[in-house]
Amino acid sequence: MTATPTHTQPQRATIASLYASGKEAQAHDEYATARRYFQEALQVQVATLGHMHADTAQTLSILGNVAYREGALATARRYYQEALTVNDVVHGRAHPETAAILHGLGLVAAAEYCFPQARSYFADALKIREATLGRIHQDTGDTIHQLARVAAAEEDYPRARQAYQDELAIRTALAGADHAEAVFTVYDMSNLARNARQMTGWCAFLTFIWLPWPMRVVAALGVIGLGWFGYKQQPRATIWVHRLLRVLLALTIVRFVLSGWQIAWGAVPLGMSLLMLAIGAFLGFAWPWLKSDLRQLFLSRPR
After folding, report:
1. DSSP string across 53-81
2. What is the pLDDT of residues 109-151, one digit of tens each?
3. Nearby residues of 61 by Cβ (< 8 Å), 6 or more positions away
4. What domains sit in the chain, N to C, each tagged with a CATH number?
5. Is pLDDT larger for residue 34 or for residue 302?
6. Under a CB-based contact definition with an 8 Å cutoff, are residues 18 and 41 in contact?
């Protein structure tokens, strides 16, 4: 039977010192310094304990946390994935440490605007935390909070609202309704509703402006109804309201440009007007995909 590798007393003291220095630097937001200390601790652990060890996995996870705080998302993802591989071998999938690593991977994916991937990581972390820590637990509430944020970013207001309500129930059970975290959750819920009202209101207003009189009132009321339905029940309705709003905003901008052109240089040829309106409508409709591609292009550049 193979003995479990252990540290000698001097090695334990060295790692403890490096950990203390790394945590102190991390507390002061000195992430480059913290990373250096934790990397030195990792080197000692790998040399004495081997790669497949719980302590090694923990340090890899901490390095992922530090890299995430630095904004080095690709580095954070690499550390988290390496920690996950080790942790799956050492502890198995149904373990709180595994859930913490999955939560970290979700944070990285969300920061990279990869929301479906982030949702998958957070959902896996939530299942583990509920099974190992219970429903009424701080870490469980943290993961539900992130699921709510991802749902809001994906314009799925019903799912976001439900997640915030679940989070509020946990925060209230743990610390009471007057605790700061419960108050912040209530604020997030009200902010979600306010954002839905504002987006729907602007869309209805621009619809009213753009359409001729016989249609504008009915169309604007239809937009308001669609926005309410999207907030309460059907996220696809919200997505279409937001798409329509982006198209109308783009067309409004094009209209102002054409008006300025006409004042400065005279009448704009009909063909050019139609082309500019078509381009504006396309950019407004396709903006979420264009924005995602631009973000991925920026994030993929070497740092």
Report:
1. SHHHHHHHHHHHHHHHHHT-HHHHHHHHH
2. 999 989 999 999 999 999 999 999 999 999 999 999 999 999 9
3. 79, 80, 83, 87, 97, 100, 101, 104
4. 1-92 (1.25.40.10), 196-303 (no CATH)
5. 34
6. yes
